[in-house]
From TrEMBL:
Organism this protein belongs to: Leptosia nina
Pfam families named among the record's database cross-references: Lipase
Keyword set, alphabetical order: Calcium, Disulfide bond, Metal-binding, Secreted
InterPro entries to which the protein is assigned, alphabetical: AB_hydrolase_fold, Lipase, Lipase_LIPH, Lipase_N, Lipase_panc, TAG_lipase
Lineage: Eukaryota, Metazoa, Ecdysozoa, Arthropoda, Hexapoda
GO cellular component terms listed in the entry, alphabetical order: extracellular space
GO MF terms, alphabetically ordered: metal ion binding; triacylglycerol lipase activity
Record's protein name: Lipase domain-containing protein
Active site: 192 (nucleophile), 220 (charge relay system), 305 (charge relay system)
Length: 524
């Protein structure tokens, strides 16, 4: 099965899931009974099926009952990492006696469709938060609503409304029983449908208890049934003091997209453009038959959607700054139009540590909490994902030797070398062969693995492939080579610039690595 077939099968399965709501049901005339518009579950309130819950939705359901949902809250601290304290929203006395440190911070983590609180990625986030330096008083609560996250999708969408309200009641119980002044150090982290669940929780806290959640992190908020809806229906920045979003699969469902495209938080991160992620193309391979076909297909197409929580867990204790840069678009970002952190191009680390930087920008009057900041970053294709960004500017020499040699076609590959002789990974300026003419200037934004220090020199390689159909690639009497005048490397994260040149203006010959240094520019 190729990727197109997998996508078509996923669409078919989604349609079948929706059909489950209507099969084997007797269809009475509309006058036979008056349709139920509102259903109430005490003490959690009433849930309407009227507008806006009908907008952009092929079906509309009530949440199933709290008893059927069976939401479980598993509470972990540094004192009980392995065996959680299991709580219910109404367990006020148990909350009082659960040995929860009122200093906080308090983290809540929840999953999305087809998932449950037992997933490894949830435990990874919980462990990373508890291991974080200075978090000795932290409490992590996993919101497990696995009974309500099963197909059909439309029912799971309805269920998160009630799960969000139930979680708000638990947070209020924490607030009351622990004598907390506010919920500023409460952070709700949700993936996919769980992102909107967190939004419902934040909304309920304000509406019923006059409390505002400190922070919500939405990891690739689900798009089906939520795109282009009013803010009441989906997560938005009014649901908490600070809302940050990581988009990793922001594209239509018919292209195997599950995540939202819209910028809905105070800060929205679009790593690698926010739609597809490096390393996901071959993830899961094609379905080979046997086992649960639905789960296999979902795994095949869901890699991009799940990468958002991979990014977040790494961002808690990152291997490098995990910086993202404000820009008008991802294309403009890649073209090197946003390579300096300034008032027009804000720089904020993606994920966990974004809030501290945002608060500093807010104090400086550089961000408005009523508006959105969209930022872009590049990552690696495998763990660790964090990369550092460099603007690379290459100028082809216009010297006599370069002009006599004439234009050549190939690819330039560079490796950065720091003061300890540590080398980055190798990167091409362009993935395709291109013409380099005397006097040409090429500028690219490239992300490298962090060596721990800014670069001091650059290894340059010229990759050349002759093509019998392209006369300009014919080099019969001498080797293909490129005369480079200089390469300028500007670091976003380190805020440094270096310019390196070839020794004695010598060309970079095909398949012969050349080390370029700053001191060689003096002789040019």
């Amino acid at each position: 099965m190729n990727r197109t077939s997998a996508t078509l099968m996923l669409q078919t399965i989604m349609v079948l899931m929706e059909k489950q709501n209507t099969t084997d049901v007797t269809h009475y005339p509309s006058t036979f009974y008056e349709e139920e518009i509102e259903r109430c579950y005490e003490p959690y309130g009433c849930f309407s099926k009227a507008y806006p819950w009908t907008e952009h939705r092929p079906d509309n359901n009530f949440p199933i009952s709290p008893e059927a949902l069976g939401v479980r809250f598993a509470v972990f601290t540094r004192r009980n990492r392995k065996i959680p304290v299991l709580l219910q929203a109404k367990d006020e006395e148990k909350i009082r006696n659960a040995n929860i440190d009122p200093r906080g911070p308090f983290y809540f983590i929840t999953h999305g469709f087809l998932d449950g609180g037992h997933k490894v990625w949830i435990q990874n986030i919980a462990d990373a938060l508890l291991n974080l330096e200075g978090n000795d008083a932290a409490t992590v609560t996993i919101v497990d609503w696995r009974r309500g996250s099963q197909p059909p999708y439309g029912q799971a969408v309805a269920n998160i409304r009630l799960v969000g309200v139930i979680t708000a009641h638990l947070m209020h119980a924490f607030y009351k029983e622990l004598n907390l002044p506010n919920l500023n150090n409460f952070h709700f982290i949700g993936h996919s449908l769980g992102s909107h669940l967190a939004g419902y929780c934040g909304h309920e806290l304000q509406k019923k208890f006059n409390l505002k959640l400190g922070r919500i992190t939405g990891m690739d908020p689900a798009a089906p049934y939520f795109s282009n809806t009013v803010t009441l229906v989906r997560l938005d920045r009014s649901d908490a003091e600070y809302v940050d979003i990581i988009h990793s699969n922001a594209m239509p469902l018919y292209f195997s997209g599950f995540g939202m495209t819209e910028s809905i938080g105070h800060v929205d991160f679009y790593p690698n453009g926010g739609s597809t992620q490096p390393g996901c193309k071959n993830e899961g391979s094609a379905y080979q038959g046997g086992g649960d076909m639905y789960q296999s297909i979902v795994k095949y197409v869901a890699c991009n959607h799940e990468r958002s929580h991979d990014f977040f867990v790494e961002s808690i204790a990152p291997t490098c700054p995990f910086m993202a840069i404000q820009c008008s678009s991802y294309e403009a970002f890649l073209d090197g139009n946003c390579t300096t952190c300034d008032n027009k191009h804000l720089c904020i680390p993606m994920g966990f540590h974004s809030h501290n930087v945002y608060k500093r920008l807010q104090m400086g009057g550089l961000v408005d909490t009523n508006s959105n900041v969209a930022l872009y970053a590049q990552t690696g294709s495998a763990k660790p994902y964090c990369r550092v960004h460099f603007e690379v500017k290459l100028k082809v020499s216009n010297s006599t030797e370069s002009q006599v040699h004439g234009p050549d076609i190939g690819k330039v590959m560079i490796t950065l070398i720091d003061r300890n002789n540590n080398k980055s990974d190798h990167k091409f300026l362009s993935e395709e062969q291109k013409y380099y003419r005397p006097g040409d200037v090429e500028t690219k934004l490239i992300a490298f693995k962090d060596t721990g220090h800014p670069p001091l020199s650059v290894k340059v390689e010229w990759k050349y492939e002759a093509n019998i159909l392209i006369p300009m690639t014919w080099r019969l009497l001498k080797s293909s080579s490129l005369y480079i005048e200089y390469i300028k490397i500007s670091s976003i994260e380190y805020n440094t610039d270096i310019t390196v040149c070839p020794k004695l203006r010598k060309p970079v010959v095909a398949n012969l690595p050349t080390i370029m240094k700053t001191k060689y520019c003096i002789h040019n």
